[in-house]
């Protein structure tokens, strides 16, 4: 039996976690089906629970196996496709990648709450010291990693990987809320993400 992959996702417009899993699947280049669930529909929770035991999207179905949570999906993809470049090759860089991925996955509450994910532009955010501190920290991560991999591709560790998939929604949030970094390297990184063919595909099909 051929392997069957299906991603259970929320709306493209609103689901930042779904974008992450979808970007990773596109990057690997596997054949996969998608099932989009309208998160605003009254039946959304029941429908998600038909596939995902946590009641959250994204979830990945691989034949009879279900994996939920974008980070677990990322690690599973990496186990199945270790040569797809989802993590950097060097062990130290891989450890740093896991650090920034985990920091993103478990933190940045002010960015999430003050700049709710949306693909619409021209939105206004609620400013606060906490938000500014988190934006500063995101920029510090991007700047630090880009400065180290200046000689390779334009992504955080050179080539596109899980770290970029995890931060792509932040780049789209900055765009939606009109936040422009004063740092050239940060702006360059944001443009690399915005010009990524799969990010563009996600945004244009929404
Ligand atoms: N940490 C989870 C977060 C998943 C999450 O919060 N998903 C939201 C959509 S972006 C969701 O499923 N919302 C629907 C609900 O809570 O009913 C992950 O990385 O997958």
End-to-end distance: 33 Å
**Helix run count:** 9
Give the distinct bound molecules: glutathione
Sequence stretches where pLDDT stays below 50 over 5 or more residues: none
CATH topology of the largest domain: Glutathione S-transferase Yfyf (Class Pi), Chain A, domain 2
- Any idea what the shape is? globular
Structural class: alpha+beta
Order of helices and strands: EHEHEEHHHHHHH
Structure commentary:
The chain is an alpha+beta fold and 206 residues long. The chain folds into two domains: 5-80, 3-Layer(aba) Sandwich (Glutaredoxin), CATH 3.40.30.10; 91-204, Up-down Bundle (Glutathione S-transferase Yfyf (Class Pi), Chain A, domain 2). It contains nine helices and four strands; from the N terminus they run E-H-E-H-E-E-H-H-H-H-H-H-H. It has a four-stranded mixed β-sheet. Helix 1 links the parallel strand 1 and strand 2 (33-37). Helix 4 (91-106) crosses helix 7 (162-176). It is globular. It starts with a strand and ends with a helix. The model has no long low-confidence stretch (mean pLDDT 96). Glutathione binds at residues 10, 15-18, 39, 44-45, 55-58, 69-71.
What features would you highlight for this structure?
206 residues; alpha+beta; Glutaredoxin; Glutathione S-transferase Yfyf (Class Pi), Chain A, domain 2; 2 domains; four-stranded mixed beta sheet; globular; binds glutathione
Structure summarized in a few sentences:
It is built from 9 helices and 4 strands, in the order E-H-E-H-E-E-H-H-H-H-H-H-H. By secondary structure, the protein is α+β, with helices and mostly antiparallel strands.
